[in-house]
Amino acid sequence: MHGVGGTTPEEMLRDPRTERITGDTTAAVYRRTEDADAEDRPGEYRDEPVPEAYCWSNLTSGNGARALWLILLPFMVANLAHWTRPASDGRRRMVRLHGVLVRLVALSLTVLLVGAVCEVALDLIAWQCGGSQECAGGRDWLAFMAAGPDGSGGWWSRPGRRLALAAVIPAAATGLLWWLSHRTWSAYESQQPLDTTVTEDDPKANGRPALSLPGFWYGKRHVARLRAAHTAAGFLTIGAMLAAASTRYDRKPGGSTALDAFGWALEGLLLACGAWVLYVVCRRGRKDTRADNDDESLSVTALPGVALGITVLAAVHGAWSRPGWVSSQTLPGDETFGVVAVFQGALVVALGVVGVALYRDRPVERTALGGFAPAAVAMLACALGGVLSGGVAQRVGDWLDGPATPGSPDAPIAGPPTLLTWQASIIPLLLVFVLVLMGWFAFKLWRRAKALRENVNSMYPESLPDESRSRRIGGAIARAALTDEAPWLVATVAVVTLVLGGGAVLGTVLTDQVPGQAADGAGAVLNGAADTVQALGSWMVGFGFLLFLTWGRRAYRDPSARRTIGILWDVGTFWPRSAHPFAPPCYAERAVPDLAWRMAMWTDKEPTRRLVISGHSQGSVLAASAVWQLDPETRRQIALLTYGSPLERLYARWFPAYFGPAQLEALDKDVHCWSNLWRLTDPIGGPVRLQPVDGHRVDHGPLRDPVDYGRTKERPLPAPILAHGDYQADPAFDEERDGLLARLRIPREGLTGVPQQPALAGQAVAGQGGTDRAVAGQAEGAAPGRSSG
To answer: pTM here?
Structure first.
């Protein structure tokens, strides 16, 4: 199993001739051509393992167009907040409350981003620019809807008709999100899992109640419910903005009584359908005890269509003829952004309270942020949603008003809502804080690297010290250790964002002016500073949005960028879509069933068969997840080899309810044997920190990196610092792999007396006797010989 960067089967098997054994072009199992028919020649493989490679990189990479998935990053981060829940012992109500809060955060993000598209299409273009002859008259594509100062113009110049036409854009965006969610489910997440019988109340599930359950990697009904609710919420957001404009005019003196009555009925329908959406989102969460393959009820599947019908009624109501209606200033209903911001802040605080309560009930060692992780991750999701929504609105506003500043007396349009300008203005302050924080980490890195130089020399007592060599090795170890500081960096940024966001809402409520105007009369220095942060924020929020897409495209085209950015992306898309149905698809819902079915079917053909599954980096997480899906008897036929694995360092700390110490201990007891290789220079992988079982310990390391300090007779050229890659180049890798193959011949209860032999660094287990036939989930870059495992 390869890691995040991905590789070809030829590189993994070290043979230019490979054949696909099972699978398709998206994910498949490969063998060397000479081993393709190994089962038909059992005599030749009686004591030889058959290497196989499972390639899954096409599940997470592709052409540059997939960089547009980064627009869905706030949805992915919100979905991630669901899985960072602290471990719990039977507090089902608190666990359900946690899930409801996260799903409400996810729903608010859908409303926020659809509202941002409405802000651009309905407010800035149709309402403000279309109502200004100066703005629309100079643009051919808008001239048909340009209205004069007295409301004169063509048929489309009426405000309600302009809004009805512009509503097609956010409606199409909502429909696109629905289509992408439905399509990616069919393409990536519709693989049926193994049919096992373990339930949440079964004693066999103790310590591993989730990942071992048959429905964990298949939640069709749950995703369908959320998809229907979020699609309906998007349409209702559009309908609410359309209705807000028309009903406000109808209730003015001289308005039409019939239209006013219809407006009241329309608002009632919007509220009723909104309550329906909230009920669907809050009523039911995931259910993992079985594959959730049932069809949803008609009341849920009809929800998007009902919401779309109400939106069409709102568009027809607004497009009705209203002589004398002209558009000015901003579109009524812009207060939505303030309401969403306050709602999100309250949800984040509530998540923090619930998370701490769960953590205190069952504290798990090394849990990230002590229960505050869900709140911090949810806050980052809301901040990303604010950057995307504000960035689009600010850029379009600056483009439409030409050289003028939006909201200024000489500008043709009023510009985006005041809150979005305030939120953009806090970005420079947040960036300054982050730069100061990064400077502090850089200082700590320098001090730590300097202190490690002497330790590096002690790691290679047989070599003559070299100051520059020790400095590079010490720097690599110090940089790798920064990963363990990530929780506090995330928490600090989340808290500062929450405080500054609250200040932006408060500034909007108290002044109802943009920062530059609010600071008028407060002194030249303060006024200049307010104008500066407002201008910088407006520019930076738009630039950040473009940079976002640029990085995403590069991550899919440049392998080096893929490895750098990929780990964060692949951690996020590893988890099923439990909170947000519009998040990028979960590749593990295809990869884990693939691996589980392959292992179960292969070992079922002959009960005496044994199997070693090895995984690098994210591949080790997929391997562990697939092993959990097998029945206990099959697990006893499997040995597990992980290297550069983030199982404890990232997953156990951030997702303690699913990869905590209890779950990892259960995995170690279930499989026949397990070895984990790690380095101090690895910024991603690390030890799994399990106690020895039957005299065998899982962790083997830290491996020396580089293998040799200087030039040796065996390696006359300087050895590179490998960090997270090329574990198979270390002699300890071959020793551990061959040891696992040998240990598979020994019954689990007989492993206590297996002798322990030292590896180059740490310990490796050398089993006794020959090996069974085994199919190895081959590590990327493993040796080509049949004895390689």
So the answer is: 0.87
